[in-house]
Specification:
The chain is of the alpha/beta class. It has 2 domains: 231 residues, Periplasmic binding protein-like II (D-Maltodextrin-Binding Protein, domain 2); 187 residues, Periplasmic binding protein-like II (D-Maltodextrin-Binding Protein, domain 2), CATH 3.40.190. It has 19 helices and 18 strands. The strands form 6 sheets. It has a 5-stranded mixed sheet with strand order 2-1-3-17-6. It has a 5-stranded mixed sheet with strand order 11-8-12-7-13, with helices on both faces. α11 runs parallel beside α12. The chain starts with a helix and ends with a helix. 51% of the residues are buried. The N terminus is likely disordered.
Length: 446
């Protein structure tokens, strides 16, 4: 296929790929301005230079004087696929410029901190969890997505992923996945699909066969489900831009929910294990674990360990004061960002658009079991026929968005979770009430 035709959409979408910027630590501006070196601005409109056949050059003036050298950060587990996709991009862009792309292992959990620490040493394109968007944008380290790319991203991706990448109406991230969360994963020889619908059924099935149930209850990322199932909701920051905003919570409901979790886990304390999610797949391999709460990043490992016995379902219900209540968790999205200190912002934006395209998201769904944010990819037979991907995408309906989460949120929630599973200190209504109010106050950093 003709390379120009094949990448026409990328070229047109990326031709206005640069914003005005003031370098590392500065603030990003509008959709115009051409950066010639990292952190500097030459001003004026973005170049719309054309090739000999009349196609718009997505790189503008970049690459005219030599190769475009880019660095991309991605997690260890995705290195093979990411390298293939970057190589394909470079090959198909040969008609415009020579592009060399170095793919470096770097997980999303740490990439934002590294960019904030020294953007000039960071990758041109990097993945990050959406709750880091606000910090990266406020520091001036993210290049704003241009109007043309923004319209394309909005049209092609889920509303939740677009919202997670947006601040004050402007888009600063490129949605990469729609699955940054966790669900119930189980061995179907231990837990039936029917039993997996309730937490009570899941725990009973595990105990019957003397298998462990694993949850990282002392980690705020997972322990927040105790809070959210109780009806608490967060929505970004208060006016100070730092304090976590709680839009809804009810003390009486929270106390009943906390007691339900505590009492149920106490009943099954002999098979309940609190630990890192790696224990889930490791336990499947050794035959000691029947079920656990695990994230999308470990789905491939669970499938490898259990084969056709691998089961995946939305988080189950728990009986709270006589009512089966849906467990609610935190649901986020992985985004790609373009470093505002990049020497090649046009090329970086074009690459980010390609790596988050329907084509690339489908490849990652197939090879890595990543759930797509792209609407067409999410509706594909590949995703619909995959129990794990279907379950994780369905979980988004029972969740609180992981957007603009305050730094003060995680530690109090970890402490909250550890108290829920403190089997040596039976929880009472009074102690639950005190713990709940202390947790809210600590998260708000009061």
């Amino acid at each position: 296929m003709n390379r120009t035709k094949r990448f026409c959409a990328i070229a047109l979408a990326a031709m206005m790929a640069v914003t005005s910027l003031a370098g590392c630590g500065g603030t990003s501006g509008g959709d115009t301005g051409t950066a010639s070196t990292g952190g500097s601005t030459t001003g004026g409109e973005v170049s719309t230079a054309v090739t000999d056949n009349g196609a718009v050059n997505p790189f503008g003036d970049e690459g005219a004087d030599g190769p475009i050298n880019l660095k991309v950060w991605g997690p260890d587990t995705a290195q093979g696929v990411l390298k293939e996709q970057c190589s394909k991009f470079a090959e198909d862009m040969k008609g415009y410029a020579e592009v060399n792309i170095e793919v470096v292992p770097q997980g999303e959990a740490d990439s934002a901190a590294l960019v904030l620490n020294d953007a000039s040493a960071a990758a041109d394109v990097f993945g990050f969890a959406c709750d880091n968007l606000n910090k990266l944008q406020r520091s001036g380290n993210l290049l704003k997505v241009t109007t043309a790319n923004k319209e394309k991203i909005i049209a092609e991706n889920s509303e939740g992923s677009v919202s997670a990448a947006t601040i004050d109406g402007d888009l600063y991230g490129y949605p990469e996945t729609g699955d940054n969360s966790y669900i119930l994963v189980y061995n179907k020889d231990v837990v039936s699909d029917e039993a997996a619908k309730t937490l009570e059924g899941t725990l009973a099935a595990c105990k019957e066969q003397n298998k462990q149930f694993v949850m990282d209850a002392g980690n705020g990322y997972y322990a927040c489900l105790f809070l959210f199932t109780a009806g608490a909701k967060i929505d970004g920051y208060e006016d100070d831009g730092e304090t976590q905003k709680f839009t809804e919570y009810d003390e009486a409901t929270a106390v009943k929910t906390m007691l339900a979790f505590h009492n149920l886990f106490t009943e099954y304390k002999d098979i309940f294990v609190s630990g890192d999610t790696s224990k889930v797949v490791d336990g499947f391999k050794s035959g000691t674990v029947g079920a656990g709460i695990d994230g999308s990043w470990n789905f491939a490992g669970a499938k490898s360990a259990l084969g056709e016995k691998a089961g995946f379902a939305v988080l189950p219900t728990i009986n709270v004061d006589g009512t089966d209540t849906q467990i609610v968790n935190m649901f986020g999205y992985k985004l790609l960002g373009v470093n505002s200190s990049s020497k090649y912002p046009n090329a970086s934006a074009a690459l980010a658009m390609y790596l988050t395209s329907e084509e690339c998201q489908l490849q990652r769904a197939e090879k890595l079991n990543w759930g797509p944010s792209n609407k067409n990819a999410a509706e594909s037979d590949l995703v619909k026929n995959d129990q794990a991907l279907s379950a994780i995408l369905a979980q988004s309906e029972n969740s609180v968005a992981q957007v603009n989460v305050a730094d003060t949120f995680w530690t109090p929630l970890a402490q909250f979770g550890n108290k829920i599973i403190d089997f040596n200190d039976p929880m009472t209504e009074e102690s639950a009430k005190t713990l709940f109010n202390q947790t809210i106050a600590n998260v708000r950093d009061e």
